[in-house]
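Continuing the series of single-chain predictions for the mutant panel. This is the parent chain; the variants come on the following pages.
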Amino acid sequence: MKVLFTFYVPSGGVETLNRLRCKALKEIGIEGHLLYLENGSGLQNISGIPVYISPTDYQLQTLLMTQEYDAIVTTSDYLMTLRLRQIGYIGPILYEIQGLGTRDQAEQALNEAEPILRDFCQGMLMPPTPHLVELATKICPTIPRYIFSNPVDTDTFLPLNVKAPNRPIIAWIGRLEANKNWELFLHIAHSLILVKSELLFWMFLDDKLSSEAERNSFWEIVQLRGLSEHIRVISNAPHASMPEYLSLIGESGGLLLSTSHLEGFGYAVAEAISCRCPVLSTDSDGVRLFIRHNETGKFFAMGDVSGAVKEILELMDNQCLREMIRRNGQDYISRLMSPQQYAANFHQMILSLKGSS
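Parent structure:
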């Protein structure tokens, strides 16, 4: 059996998801291939998986004829479903919802997509994220829905034996764009150093996916809030290096701070928890899958800087609570989101599709 996964650019959570599921599916005899419309920094993470970049219609048609895919999963890009049908693909197509930005953006995208999906797709795939499930059910009620959690590489993302840094580190992972809410992170960082001047802030950025205006605004605010000596920007870090970074952050006495308005899943948060790096997050929907307040992580209210500072200080200073959260979080991720469970769910979905065709 052979499946093609398509997306816009190899970066962020979808790039992680595609690599992990191809590896997991290979273990049960399903060969996964990847197709991206553009180059991206995530290409450095991929090995052992066939990858196709920006094919012309002729090249894509030739690929489909040569590989004879049993199914194609188009992530977020509903126009790809139309393109695939126009060049002659007749097999099952699944439209996968991952993220789509804010709730309003997701709703707009699905409303635009609905006529195309109704005509050309055999199903919709999504994680059990409440706003995504709700919108898909409301806007595309006639299309079968397949809902199961994304996998987390719990064999790689685990706490490593690292030397604890001598200064606590507060980390942030994302793109410099509005939904990730990086300005809130800088506001909280500014408030924190007034209380704990020894803190360091590591920001893991994909700078290829941000505009020049956004980058300029970022550095202006860093200067304005007096954070220049406290912030370290790490651009386009290889995904394989993240378990060590996250373990260092956890052992430093620090944490990952997630400030997103909305997350479809939240890979950075799940991977941090899996490495015993505790997480404080806004209630951005997707992360509810693996954060239970004061059990596997912590939540704070969007925009509540003083509340965030209070939660961070408790997570750093209350060692009993901190260690319980770290331990519970890792155990929860390993039980809930194993690649093996994902592969079993995916295989059952494909069998269902082939049986109904």
